[in-house]
């Protein structure tokens, strides 16, 4: 049985202030939960509709009870509450991805998956970027959040301290397909509607954009997650084609 106190706690974790206060977040789905366990995240509560021998102590419940605590329209059969780990010092690799004011949880979750795919271990975010432990972000990251460290900081200060070349994704930038990309770089992606904020744009070393090839030129812009995928692919492609400066 899921107790009333457990239901109250889990439902409260839909709000950032409660996640911050309790240092807890929710993960749903057997695969995602298993990946967080494998990565060493500490579970506070584990619920499942079937016993799982690979999991530590967990509560077996029925689908009706699971629906009471799930954030999904169609619960996936398992739910866990994990402790939010302490933010650790991190070492920057040759490519760092930075997000300036990304608001949509689905976009952030997808970008975290992209970091996982392209081997980016640390994702640096402005403080007004969506919370990575939002249930919608966790769900759309599909377990990748277990392997990607998300850091929230003052972006202007962070970027001013960088020795690597900083690239801002901006409409007035150079065609990325005709631009030499540095091997050690920082790529900045901006807000879904407003793009990179002016104070961040003005300190970029280089500005790049993805050219539009459509005949009618009616599309205003690419989805930020889609644009991130294209640009990360270009930076990684440069490692094998000699495209870097």
Structure explained in plain terms:
The chain has 245 residues and is of the alpha/beta class. Helix content is 33%, strand content 23%. It is built from 9 helices and 10 strands. The chain has a 6-stranded parallel sheet with strand order 7-6-5-9-8-10. Helix 5 (105-117) runs parallel beside helix 6 and helix 5 (105-117) runs parallel beside helix 9 (224-241). The longest helix is centred in the last third of the chain and has 18 residues, at 224-241. The protein is elongated, with a radius of gyration of 20 Å. The protein starts with a helix and ends with a helix. The mean pLDDT is 92.
Provide keyphrases for this structure.
245 residues, alpha/beta, six-stranded parallel beta sheet, four-stranded mixed beta sheet, 10 strands, elongated
* Mean pLDDT over all positions: 92
Assign an overall shape.
elongated
In terms of DSSP E residues, the strand content is: 15-25%
The percentage helix is 25-40%
Q: How far is the first residue's CA from the last residue's CA?
A: 61 Å
Q: For the largest beta sheet, what order do the strands appear in spatially?
A: 7-6-5-9-8-10
Characterize the largest beta sheet: strand count, sense, and whether it forms a barrel: 6 strands, parallel
How many strands appear in the DSSP assignment?
A: 10
Structural category: alpha/beta
**Secondary-structure element order, N to C:** HHEHEEHEEHEHEHEEHEH
Give Rg in angstroms: 20 Å
SS field, number of helical segments: 9
Uncertain residue ranges: none
């Amino acid at each position: 049985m899921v107790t009333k106190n457990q239901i109250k706690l889990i439902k409260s974790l839909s709000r950032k202030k409660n996640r911050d206060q309790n240092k807890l977040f929710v993960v749903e789905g057997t695969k995602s939960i298993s990946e967080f366990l494998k990565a060493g995240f500490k579970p506070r509560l584990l619920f499942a509709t079937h016993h799982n021998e690979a999991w530590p102590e967990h509560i077996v419940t029925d689908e009706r009870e699971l629906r009471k605590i799930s954030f999904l329209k169609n619960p996936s059969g398992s739910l866990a509450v994990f402790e939010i780990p302490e933010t650790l010092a991190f070492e920057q690799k040759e490519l760092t991805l930075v997000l300036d004011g990304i608001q949509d949880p689905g976009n952030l979750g997808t970008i975290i998956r992209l970091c996982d795919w392209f081997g980016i271990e640390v994702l640096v975010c402005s403080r007004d970027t969506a919370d990575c432990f939002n249930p919608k972000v966790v769900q759309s990251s599909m377990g990748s959040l277990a392997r990607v460290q998300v850091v929230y900081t003052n972006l202007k200060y962070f970027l001013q301290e960088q020795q690597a070349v900083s690239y801002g994704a901006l409409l007035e930038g150079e065609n990325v397909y005709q631009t030499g990309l540095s091997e050690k770089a920082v790529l900045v992606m901006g807000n879904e509607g407003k793009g990179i904020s002016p104070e961040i744009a003005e300190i970029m070393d280089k500005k790049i954009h993805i050219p539009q090839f459509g005949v009618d030129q009616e599309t205003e812009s690419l989805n930020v997650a889609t644009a991130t995928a294209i640009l990360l692919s270009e930076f990684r492609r440069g490692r094998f084609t000699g495209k870097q400066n």
